[in-house]
């Protein structure tokens, strides 16, 4: 796929991939990076890599933590975050929620 076409697609991937964020399947095949800075047009930003590197995990096997639950996105979503709504205050500071349990919170402001 050419770079110009790739930059149009906005992709988010998440789930249990049975691999850590630093495994070859993510680093070499999917070209994920754990830092937001210096992302190329075709790189994917893996939000879980930093957490894994500081010791967070979702399972342990033989005394060693693994983080198989991944959340990654295309670099254009990282760079283009002004189009997304964020709450600057309150208990849920960050991305505005649409739902709370089964209640719809709406669009917010």
Description:
This protein is of the alpha+beta class and 109 residues long. The chain has one domain. Helices cover 18% and strands 28% of the residues. It contains 4 helices and 10 strands; from the N terminus they run H-E-H-E-E-H-E-E-E-H-E-E-E-E. The chain has helices at 3-6, 24-29, 49-53, 75-79; strands at residues 12-16, 32-33, 44-46, 59-61, 64-66, 69-74, 86-87, 94-95, 99-100, 103-104. A 4-stranded mixed sheet has the order 1-6-3-2. It has a two-stranded antiparallel sheet with strand order 4-5. A two-stranded antiparallel sheet has the order 7-8. The chain is globular, with a radius of gyration of 16 Å. The N and C termini lie far apart (38 Å). The mean pLDDT is 80.
Q: Can you describe this structure in just a few lines?
A:
By secondary structure, this protein is an alpha+beta fold.
């Amino acid at each position: 796929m050419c770079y110009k076409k790739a930059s149009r697609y906005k992709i988010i991937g998440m789930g249990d991939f049975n691999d850590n964020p630093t495994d070859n399947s993510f680093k070499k095949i999917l070209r994920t990076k754990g830092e937001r800075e210096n992302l190329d047009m075709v790189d994917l930003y893996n939000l879980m890599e930093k957490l894994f590197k500081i010791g967070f995990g979702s399972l342990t096997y033989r005394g060693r933590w693994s983080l198989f639950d991944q959340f990654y996105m295309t670099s254009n979503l990282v760079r283009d975050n002004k189009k997304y709504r964020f709450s600057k205050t309150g208990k849920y500071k960050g991305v505005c929620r649409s739902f709370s349990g089964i209640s719809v919170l709406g669009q917010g402001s």
